[in-house]
Amino acid sequence: MKTVPLGTTNTQVPNIVAGMMRIADSTDEQIRALYTAAREAGINFFDHADLYGFNHPDGGPHLCERRFGEALKLSSAGHEQITLQTKTGIVAAP
After folding, report:
1. What is the DSSP track for 2-60?
2. Any coiled-coil ranges, and where (predicted)?
3. How far is CA 61 from CA 11, 19, 37, 54, in A?
């Protein structure tokens, strides 16, 4: 898979990123399967944000990040050389 530099760093990431915005309703097994399929396809760059899953019934800030992390702990796919990108910005108080 073609890689490109991440910004001005020496970190190389694939030109395809796996977005995790929609995993709030997924089971841990489904998230692990998504991660495994991405790794097998050569994808090692995963995009998150603190607001992904915020309005989910089980949600709140960082829901998708937490769900991905829990699934990742149980995954048998390789964890070396992965890049996690996150964004922040939820305003917690008026």
Report:
1. -EEE-TTSS-EEESS-EE-TTGGGS-HHHHHHHHHHHHHTT--EEE--TTTTTTSTT-S
2. none
3. 28, 17, 26, 5
Structure tokens at 24: 């709030």
Among residues 37, 30, 13, 39, the alpha carbon closest in space to that of 67 is found at 30
Domain range summary for the chain, segments of one domain joined by +: 3-85
The pLDDT tens digits for 20-41 are 888 888 888 898 898 889 888 8
The DSSP symbol for 16 reads S
- Identify residue 9 by its one-letter amino acid code: T
